[in-house]
């Protein structure tokens, strides 16, 4: 009975969405819904930076291994760094990394016997992504879509900024775990929220089109012009701060409010959508009746 009531409520809600007008050629996709979709999707750009930053900050610069005799040196390119390691895969006594750019590898000498550590850190990060997505899914069902989205996004920027000051790879790995968890959490709510503002025929579009690729493309020039890994990490965190100003522009999901029996709050958002889209207020009679069954 509960499931049938919920299905009826959502069916009536989707009928209401169809009464909220269209935005140009976007049939049944109103201007207000389009605004919510764009704003929420923009979160993906800074989140992509946080997620994909290891591509740049884990890069291995060229380095020189000095022989014990102190006479000759061997200049090693990325393709031949293993040749600089001792027979037991230990690092040589003295080395110098190229100054073209810095990374966590040059910072903590993650080569030779330590060369697997960057991959380990990435694995730890991805474990965080998995756990964060699972946990946030439950939180979003209980507390709504908006609050977890903005709270986790804020925490993500804070931890990303803090990771720029890590003094050891162990500390950095712990921070990347929590950063990964917050990335997974933001992506869950970022994906669901716009979908709950549109009818089913638009959900594939909203789910597939976003600004993740934009973040990936912008990360390349950022990495080109900012060669220090700590500075790059700080910049990518600070640039994402303006997204927090969109708090007032993105309301809670009416669909989630209805599922929690909060009809009046959902009604106010629906009426706001109608006014913004410059259409008549939709008929909410059947939707209201579905709430009391």
Automatic annotation (TrEMBL):
<dbReference type="InterPro" id="IPR020846">
    <property type="entry name" value="MFS_dom"/>
</dbReference>
<keyword id="KW-0812">Transmembrane</keyword>
<feature type="transmembrane region" description="Helical">
    <location>
        <begin position="173"/>
        <end position="193"/>
    </location>
</feature>
<dbReference type="GO" id="GO:0016020">
    <property type="term" value="C:membrane"/>
</dbReference>
<feature type="transmembrane region" description="Helical">
    <location>
        <begin position="36"/>
        <end position="57"/>
    </location>
</feature>
<dbReference type="InterPro" id="IPR036259">
    <property type="entry name" value="MFS_trans_sf"/>
</dbReference>
<feature type="transmembrane region" description="Helical">
    <location>
        <begin position="205"/>
        <end position="226"/>
    </location>
</feature>
<dbReference type="GO" id="GO:0022857">
    <property type="term" value="F:transmembrane transporter activity"/>
</dbReference>
<keyword id="KW-1133">Transmembrane helix</keyword>
<protein>
    <submittedName>
        <fullName>SLC22A4_5</fullName>
    </submittedName>
</protein>
<dbReference type="Pfam" id="PF00083">
    <property type="entry name" value="Sugar_tr"/>
</dbReference>
<dbReference type="InterPro" id="IPR005828">
    <property type="entry name" value="MFS_sugar_transport-like"/>
</dbReference>
<feature type="transmembrane region" description="Helical">
    <location>
        <begin position="149"/>
        <end position="167"/>
    </location>
</feature>
<keyword id="KW-0472">Membrane</keyword>
<feature type="domain" description="Major facilitator superfamily (MFS) profile">
    <location>
        <begin position="34"/>
        <end position="293"/>
    </location>
</feature>
